[in-house]
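Exercise 7.
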Amino acid sequence: MDAPRLRAAGHLPTITALIAALVLLAGCTSEQPAPGSPDETPSATSAPEPTEEPAEEPTDEPTEEPTEEPAEQPTEEPTGEPEPVDPISMAALARADLTGGDLRLGAVRERTSAYTSYDVTFASTTAGRGTRPLRISGVLNVPTGRGPFPAVVLAHGYIDPAYYVRGQGMTRERGFLAQRGYVALHVDYRNHAESTDDPRVETAVRLGYAADAVAALHALRDSREVRVDDDRIALFGRSMGGGVMMKALAAEPGLFAAGVGWASVSSLEAENFAQFQRPDAPLAQLKAGFRGRHGLPGEDPAFWRGLSPRPLFGEITEPVLMVHGRFDDTCPPAWARATQRAMTRAGVDATLEWYDDAHAFGPAFVAAMDRTVRFLDARMPA
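Solution. The predicted structure, written as tokens, is:
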């Protein structure tokens, strides 16, 4: 608080005026609240408006002897409590202690000169340590040899869980990687194949899929049966799995060594909703039950932005390769351009490669996989 200026009073002795000033200075304390912890959510609340009322008008005459101690000092200690976040958000996913492990090898699916393929399961959780444990199924390809091998966790695209079967969606990619010396762990996700069902998976807008991808990395690192180089594990997502890849990298920066996204969905969940869910039912039906207690994007844009990885791109530390077909009519090419630009602006080492192909990658598959392996070899050197 600035010292109050004494008004001219010719009839007062100089010593009296000085005492008055000391009284006012000693009694003044700050009325502004102490600074708290910085916001950790993408949408921070506004600071309170400063008051326009002065605390006290100075008087001409001192009313008491000055004190040597101020009445009260404003506290500068932070509360230490994290800001609350929506439990269904990227912020909550980033704050959770995502765990995994207990990789169990089951039946041999295929044995070639280059690799052996197994049915596997591993441990995940509903939403991090302390929440309900889950068992996730998948398929694991292990190259022939002693290792340790670099590894890739595979996050498949959307297939209706009612019809999905174990290992479906990235069979070609899994075999291609194993033939070139990479352990490849295909994650079925919760509520798919033989995985444990999570009743909140749709209400939580599939954020749990990213938690399962993170759990797969921990399972590979902890395994005694599969020799994996802990520092050379990448995450490779296709279509919806591209969104899983972005969410996992943003929530757990530095955990994976690299990220790859093929024909990826948008990094803004409102765009994915408009493209994939909005045409499926009348608006009234979607409002009534599709997202449970959440509003639709037009009604609650902050919620849908909070589900999106794009606002957290600045957290990503890994290099990212995006691969997209120029004729993709499922995930528009404009999404890939926007995502790569947003990553680059946020400081991510992000590359976008184009191929003359559609969403499923037929004619360009081998060329795109060769490019992907070169990227992984260069960004995860032995």
